[in-house]
Amino acid sequence: MSGGTNLGVPGTSQALAHRKKDSSPSARFWECPDTLAQLEVVRQWIGKHYKKYVLVDAPSCQVLAAVTLQLLQFQEDAFGRQVPNPALTKLPAHCFLDLQPGGGLCHILGTAYKFKVEQGWRRFDLQNSSRTERNIEMFGAIEKALIQNNCMSLPLVFIDPAVDLELSSRLTGIIIKHKGAVTEDRIMASHLVYGPLASTEEDEWMRPVMRKDKHILVHWGMHPDSYDSWLSSSDVEGDIEELPHLERPWRVNAGWVLDTDVFNEWMNEEDYCVNERNVPLILRQRIHLQEDQDSRSIPSKKRRRSPSPSTDGRKKGKKG
């Protein structure tokens, strides 16, 4: 991934775009007609596979969108970066965007409705502080369902023996804290973790992930996928590229583990990829955001979020 392409905004040599300060969800995305149309598949799947839990009060697509928004916001409020000692690691963002039959969102919402009925709740209430503990239990049940149905997997990590013992111990602690596991068998590992890279100052960058209508979903470098955001396609100069086929396991530097602990969310491996000599691999184009003397006086162009979700999912490798 190379290049220093700037965001293209007419009249500016260095356009400014700013990533979200947190991973709060986009209401526009979930409430737009195109998303609601795709949620019909989810609604029908839940009606079939979780029939007894939605029989009395069958949710509409609009209701499913509203519940999804509540769940995403609860994740940010209860497990986000700003929360000291969060009870759980955040669920992967890609699970919420998987609207296929039997996909991530089907199991997230189906499990949530099952939990609601078993608790005797009349409605979801994820903003009520008195119900926080039960809502955290619900997220634990959702995580279990996602793993059992192969919608997500927890990393099995081999730490390179060249990593010094103190750091290796720290990495092991972080991996286990977030429910991953460490192995001494590199053949069995889903991830090979190498030492940290030499600290280098780098401009903020983003990577186009997915195009839909007049908007592009962009991933912000060294930030988790929950921070991905929609920009107007007129503001993004760069093509959506397929992730090259990579042999598994993932090879990543130690920053992948360390940043997972910072954000309380398993990071995007592609941002940390290295080869067997721990040399960084840039797999797809990065769009660098640079501020020069003149651009600092230019007000940020307000970011617009896409009213449309993906129809075919992210074009990136499945996380191991």
From TrEMBL:
This is Chromo domain-containing protein. Residues 1-20, 290-320 are annotated as: Disordered. Signal peptide: none annotated. PROSITE patterns: MARR_BRCT_CHROMO. Residues 15-289 form the Chromo domain. It comes from the Eukaryota. It holds the Pfam family SWIRM-assoc_2.
